[in-house]
């Protein structure tokens, strides 16, 4: 399965680079302003399955993670610092747990390590079915994504809309199914080999709660960083601060 990607900075074979995974339903441009703050540190930005390329494989976080690492292989990247927001965080955890030899650090923003409740899973699968039958308004989904912002970020609604460009029904259906069937990772994270880690969370995040961030941070052996007035999309809402903490993480991992 092919993924849309973009490279920032100079990639040298075998060198350390960031792998940046966006929130759903945003594309790789969610990370543009963060990358500006990373300076010369190399980074690869990915879009979700179904952006630009047709989707393949049975929807799963495993399949997404494998496709992401295939991009790294294509670019001859050795070790990565994997960074994920929301759905991107599920994929980041999967890569960290299944391919520890490739991961030099991990950053999780506005995400969690639990499975969906029965109700949430049912709602995701219903949305996936509607998308696969072309019964959902993609314009409505794109417009509603700004609802993930915190109160201090409401002026970024147009930015979020632009960052959903390229969303397709196939992508929406595939990703919803993959998220619906994801497993719990918290206990596995606690047992995994230790690498430098970062957990950040908006205090007004309506998609995942503060306890989710505390759980992840405890499992990874770090203190969570909370941002008042901010919501679910921290790379969009506070890109300069995200870049600042990622630079620190790079120094630790490198």
Q: What class, by secondary structure content?
A: alpha/beta
The residue ranges in which pLDDT falls below 50 over 5 or more consecutive positions are none
Radius of gyration: 17 Å
Q: What composes the largest sheet? A: 7 strands, mixed
**What fraction, in percent, of the residue positions are helical?**
40-55%
Shape: globular
Tell me the count of domains: 1
Would you tell me the overall average pLDDT?
96
DSSP summary: helix tally = 11
Q: How many β strands by DSSP?
A: 7
Query: Could you tell me the strand content as a percent range?
Result: 5-15%
Structure description:
- This protein has helices spanning about 30-35, 60-75, 85-100, 120-130, 140-145, 155-160, 170-180, 185-190, 210-220, 235, 240-254; strands at about 5-10, 15-20, 45, 80-85, 105-110, 195-200, 225.
- The protein has about 250 residues and is an alpha/beta fold.
- It has a single domain, classed as Rossmann fold (3-Layer(aba) Sandwich), CATH 3.40.50.1820.
- The protein has a seven-stranded mixed beta sheet with strand order 1-3-2-4-5-6-7, sandwiched between helices.
- Helix 2 crosses helix 3 and helix 4 runs antiparallel to helix 7.
- The chain starts with a strand and ends with a helix.
Q: Summarize this, please?
A:
The protein has one domain (5-253): 3-Layer(aba) Sandwich (Rossmann fold). Helices cover 43% and strands 14% of the residues. The protein has eleven helices and seven strands.
Which helices and strands occur, and which strands form pairs?
Elements: E1 5-8, E2 17-21, H1 32-37, E3 43-46, H2 61-74, E4 80-85, H3 87-98, E5 103-109, H4 118-132, H5 138-144, H6 157-162, H7 169-180, H8 186-191, E6 197-202, H9 210-220, E7 225-227, H10 234-237, H11 239-253
Parallel strand pairs: 2-3, 2-4, 4-5, 5-6, 6-7
Antiparallel strand pairs: 1-3
């Amino acid at each position: 399965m092919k993924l849309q990607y973009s490279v920032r900075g100079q990639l040298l074979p075998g060198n350390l680079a960031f792998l940046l995974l966006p929130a759903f339903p945003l594309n790789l441009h969610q990370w543009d302003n963060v990358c500006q703050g990373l300076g010369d540190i190399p980074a690869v930005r990915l879009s979700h399955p179904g952006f630009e390329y047709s989707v393949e494989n049975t929807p799963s976080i495993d399949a997404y993670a494998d496709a992401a690492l295939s991009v790294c292989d294509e670019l001859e990247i050795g070790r990565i610092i994997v960074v994920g927001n929301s759905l991107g965080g599920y994929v980041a955890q999967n890569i960290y747990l299944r391919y520890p030899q490739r991961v030099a650090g991990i950053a999780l923003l506005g995400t969690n390590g639990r499975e969906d409740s029965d109700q949430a899973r049912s709602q995701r699968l219903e949305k996936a079915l509607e998308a696969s039958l072309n019964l959902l308004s993609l314009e409505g989904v794109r417009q509603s994504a700004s609802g993930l912002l915190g109160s201090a970020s409401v002026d970024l609604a147009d930015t979020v809309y632009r960052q959903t460009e390229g969303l397709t029904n196939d992508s929406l259906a595939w990703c919803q199914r993959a998220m619906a069937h994801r497993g719990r990772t918290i206990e596995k994270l606690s047992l995994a080999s230790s690498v430098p880690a970062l957990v950040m969370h908006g205090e007004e995040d309506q998609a995942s709660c503060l306890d989710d961030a505390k759980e992840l941070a405890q499992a990874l052996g770090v203190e969570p960083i909370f941002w008042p007035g901010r919501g679910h999309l921290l790379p969009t809402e506070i890109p300069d601060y995200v870049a600042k903490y990622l630079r620190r993480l790079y120094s630790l991992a490198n």
